Each structure stands twice: as C-alpha cells, then as structure tokens.
Amino acid sequence: MTGLSMGEEGTHPTFLFRGGEVLGPAGLEKTDLLVAQGVIAAIGEAIEAPSGTKLVDASGHVVLPGLVDIHCHTRQPGFEESETLESASRAAALGGYTAIVAMPNTEPAIDSVPMVSYIRDLAKSALCEVFPAGAITVGRKGEKLAPIAEMFGAGVRLFTDDGAGVQDPLLARRAMEYMAALGATYAEHCEDERLANRGVMNEGAVSSELGVPGIPPASEEVMAARDLILARLTGVKLHLLHISTAQTLSMVETAKKAGLDVTCEVTPHHLMLTDSNLRAFDSVFKVNPPLREQADVDSLVQACFEGTVDAIATDHAPHSLHSKETTLDAAPFGMIGLQTAFGVASKVLGSGNSSLLVRLLSTGPAKIAGIERHHGGALHVGRTANLCVVDPNLEWNVLPEEVASKSKNTPFGGIGLEGKVVHTFLRGEPTVLFGEAQR
Q1: Rounded-to-5 percentages of helix, strand, coil across the chain
Q2: Of 147, 275, 365, 407, which sits with the fewest C-beta atoms within 10 Å of its C-beta?
C-alpha cells in the first residue's frame, strides 16, 4: 500500500479501495470498491465517494473476501499460557481471516450450551468472528454423546472431538444419525489410536533412519474408510479434518463421485513440508497427523487444483516455548499457522491463482462451516464487508517479533513465503492496516 488517506471521522466510517484488483463474481477486475455502513456499497470505476471517506490506495494489490479458518485451536479456556481467544484472533486478522472455527479441545471441552455461550462471550472483543465447534462426546472422552441437538439449537453447526478421533464405531454411527437428522456436520480427526500406537512421526524411511517410532498412514486411512462407509449408511454431512495421505484423498474422491456429502481439508504445512524436516529432531515439526512423504505432499497439492480438496485449514495449534523445547518424543504435537497460511498457500499454489486461493481459504471453508451468508463469497454490492487486501508478489520471511500468537511454534521460520496480507476488514471496520493490528 502506498497510503491510507483519512477523511473526517464519522460514526460509521466509509472506505474507498481505489486502483486494486477486486475479486467479484466474474473473477478479478481492476476497479474501485466502496464500503459504507459495514457493507459493500459500490463497485466500479471512478466511484465518487461521500465526504469523509477514507481512501485506501490498493494499486498493485488484490482485494479478496476475508479468509475463513475452519480448524483453529484457540486454547481458551484451560490453556491460556499458550493462547487466548484475543491473541488467536489478532493472529487471525493479521493473516487475513475474518472468521475462525474454534475447536472444542479446551478444558473444559466445548460440549454443552453453557460452554458454547462462554466462548461466544469471550469472543465479543475478538478481531474476527469466532464460531465454536461442539464436541461429539462428553469431555471428548469418546464414551457418551454430548448434547448435540441442544448445541445445534444454540447455533453450532460443526461437531468434532478433534485432537482425537471417535474410536468406537457404534458411537460414531449414532452421532452421525443424530447429525444427519439435524443437518449438522460431523468432522473427524481420522486416527485409529491402536494403529498410531503412540508414534512420533510418519512411519517410513525417515523414521527408520532416525530410529523414531512411526505413525503409519494406515492409522488415518482406516478411520477415514470407516467414516466414509458410515456416512453412506447415515446420510450425514461428513468433513474429514487435516487429511495427509494420497490414499485418503483417493477414498474421498471416490466417495464424492458416488454422491456422498463429504468434504475434506488439508493444512498449509502438509502442502509444503515433509517428514524429512524432522531429520534434525526439531520438535517444531512434530504435528498430528504427521508430516508425510513427498509423494503424499504432491498428491495433496494436485488435489487442491483438481477440486478434491475443499478447504485449506490451519490446524493452528499453539504450544508454549518450554513445552516444545524438549525431546521429540516428549514434545506435544502441533504448530501455529494463522499468520502464514496465505503466504504458504500462495507460494505452493501460485500467487497468481487468486480464485483458487479464495476457494480453498475462504469460500470452501465458509460453506463447510455454514457461515457463507456473511463470509467467504465473492465481493459484490450489498455483501457484508468482510475482506482483506493482499500484496500477491511480496516475498517475506516469518520473524518471531511479528508473531501475534502467544506461542511461537511456527515451522516456517526462515522459509521464504510469497503473498502477504496488508489490510483486513471485519464488517467494514479495519482490524489490520499496513500489516498492523488495530488493537
């Protein structure tokens, strides 16, 4: 950005984005965009803005729908040392996100209407909209179904025990039957715990070379296959979280061709990194599902272009410095990713592929989360002004002082990324200007 000219202050600021490329229903077009009263008021050339309008020079930049993260660990309540809703939302806004889905693996878990309400209350001052996911089972213990219908009635649309897959197939079936009747989405962390057998990284040539216990791809694939069969049986909307293997992708593709209502997501780190990154025993690269082999990475990338992958989700998983600075087997799984997701996806998929990036980082996730009315759609007049402005050609490196998360466990330090968010607007108000959070 070359400048943001401030006009007269008003109760409802009006912003004119001038000279950028705007992603509308027909694709990218160099045009102006006017935001007023929290919505997109006009799109066109040489818009005459009312007095007091704040001018955003978007020359050389792209104006996109705000990003949506369907898979984010905000850690609050219970793990505030690692993250809070406030710090997670700041990182999200800096990454271009206007909405995130908060996973329920908090302490206590988000497994009841009072907990859903508690998260929403915490999120009132957040720099993005926060949509709590509900747990499938009470306490995420995999023993008894949580009050799914009650949480659905309170507005929850996606349910998961993320951090753990539902191990009991009968319990999974019952949950799917309830959700199918309601119209809710069953989202699975695909991991058969017996097959995973407390492994540390991907089972393969690298784990054998290092002498480290491995997690076989089959641990993901067996549960994915089970859930796809149960989805066919129950008719539920099934979403597979952070899939990581070529075989899982193949099963999803087959299920879609058979007409099943199934979606899947991949993470930025599974699109760029491999199990070879663990050769130095650096726990920052320890994640679940584990980083896989290059052939799996290539398959995930190709599936993004072909449409089998519906969303790129961060699986943002903050951990304190002291918890990660230990041996590989003792360190927790997980890495942060809200501020780097766009840069990673842009580098891997191509900075010029704005429509593809928006489909995977915004439109697709918003549809899965059931929030597409206000998030994720192409920019047009009358739509809520949830948007971000990016410099598609900016090359940058992750610096610790620029990480807004309370935790710094990013795997992308020192890796050059391409494409960076400059401005983010939530309901017409700036949450980020010139790469700086506004509170």
Answers
A1: 35, 25, 40
A2: 147
pLDDT, position 9:
40
Element (H, E) at 215: strand 214-215
Q: What pLDDT score does 11 carry?
A: 58
**Close Cβ partners of 240 (under 8 Å, ≥ 6 residues apart):** 187, 188, 190, 224, 227, 248, 252, 262, 263, 264, 265
pTM metric for this prediction: 0.96
* Cα–Cα dist 200/208, whole Å: 12
The contacts of residue 214 (CB under 8 Å, 6+ apart) are 199, 200, 201, 202, 203, 204, 207, 208, 290
Amino acid at 346: S
Contact (Cβ atoms closer than 8 angstroms) between residue 425 and residue 86 = no
What gap in Å lies between CA 56 and CA 228, rounded to an integer? 47
Enumerate domains of the chain plus CATH numbers: 4-64+382-437 (2.30.40.10), 66-369 (3.20.20.140)
Cα 11 from Cα 36, distance rounded (Å):
11
298 is catalytic: no
Q: What is the number of other CB atoms lying within 10 angstroms of the CB of residue 326? A: 11
**115 φ, ψ (degrees, to nearest 5):** -70, -35
CA 13, 18, 20, 22 dihedral sign is: positive
Q: Is 425 helix (H, G, I), strand (E, B) or coil?
A: strand
For 3, the token pair is: 């400048």
For 74, the 3-state DSSP assignment is: coil
> pLDDT band for position 400 (50/70/90)?
confident
Query: Residue 297: which region, alpha, beta or left (left: phi > 0; alpha: psi -120 to 50)?
Result: alpha
Query: Are β-strands 15-24 and 27-36 bridged in parallel, bridged antiparallel, or unpaired?
Result: antiparallel
Query: What is the C-alpha separation between 17 and 1, in angstroms, rounded?
Result: 11
**pLDDT, tens digit (0-9, with 9 covering 90-100), for 277-294:** 999 999 999 999 999 999
What whole-number distance in Å separates Cα of residue 338 and Cα of residue 319?
Answer: 14
List pLDDT tens digits, range 118-160: 999 999 999 999 999 999 999 999 999 999 999 999 999 999 9
The residues facing 170 across adjacent strands are none
Cβ–Cβ contacts within 10 Å for residue 81, how many?
15
- Looking up tokens 């490196």 gives 397
How is residue 290 annotated by DSSP? Answer: P
Inter-CA distances, 266 with 69, 187, 241, 252, 347, Å = 11, 13, 7, 12, 15
Q: Tell me if 370 sits within 8 A of 185, measured CB to CB.
A: yes
Q: Which residue has the tokens 């499938």?
A: 136
DSSP letter assigned to residue 360: I
Amino acid in position 122 = L
Burial code of 103-116, b = ≥16 C-beta within 10 A, e = fewer?
Answer: bbbbeebbbbbebb
